[in-house]
Write a sequence for this structure.
């Protein structure tokens, strides 16, 4: 019986040392191989188009495009691609957003050497991989909603508004944002006004604080 080829992995993290460490963990296993690396979410999407990996491992907080934004885009353009979130944030909000974005698992960097290989294998078997705290969060959230008879809340802002919020918080001008997203300055300004109104904020500083709080940029 011929042996299955190794799982081809795309690894995205904006810290080179983290990528090197994770690559060492993965490349020590005969059934896993890293075929591409990326330093931010946008690079990850491009690398996925080029290399067609089986599995993408994405950090949450990355420049230009977060891991969660990249996961949503990858789930849209390559529905068969399996996605794992690898993060330092033991944070329920990111965890639920990761699931909503199409990720099959959520692994904490602090225990990557223990959990990551098994998470990769579970994901490729079509099984979710959740660390214990995430399982507790999931159960608690389900019980709370069941008690209150509530559906899962919708996200406050659209994907496009989130892209613009991140770029505003990173200090880009409206013209620069228009160039990056290939849209008009007028469209950028309209989205920006919508963001301020939806979030009940007055200026760029408040938007930046919000972006930090929800993990779109690092403080």
């Amino acid at each position: 019986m011929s042996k299955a080829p190794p799982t081809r992995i795309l690894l995205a993290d904006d810290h080179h040392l983290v990528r090197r460490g994770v690559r060492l963990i993965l490349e020590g296993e005969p059934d896993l191989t890293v075929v591409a690396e990326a330093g931010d979410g946008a690079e990850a999407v491009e690398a996925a188009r080029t290399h067609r990996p089986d599995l993408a491992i994405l950090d949450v907080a990355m420049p230009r495009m977060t891991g969660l934004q990249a996961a949503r885009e990858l789930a849209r353009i390559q529905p068969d691609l399996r996605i794992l979130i690898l993060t330092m944030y033991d944070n329920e909000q990111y965890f639920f957003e990761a699931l909503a974005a199409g990720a099959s698992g959520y692994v904490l960097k602090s225990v990557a050497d223990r959990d990551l290989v098994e998470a990769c294998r579970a994901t490729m078997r079509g099984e979710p991989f959740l660390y214990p705290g995430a399982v507790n969060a999931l159960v608690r959230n389900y019980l709370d909603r069941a008690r209150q008879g509530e559906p899962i809340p919708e996200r406050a802002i659209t994907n496009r508004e989130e892209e613009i919020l991140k770029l505003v918080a990173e200090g880009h001008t409206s013209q620069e944002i228009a160039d990056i997203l290939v849209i008009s300055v007028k469209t950028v300004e309209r989205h920006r006004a919508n963001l301020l109104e939806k979030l009940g904020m007055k200026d760029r500083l408040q938007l930046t604080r919000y972006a930090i709080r929800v993990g779109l940029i690092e403080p």
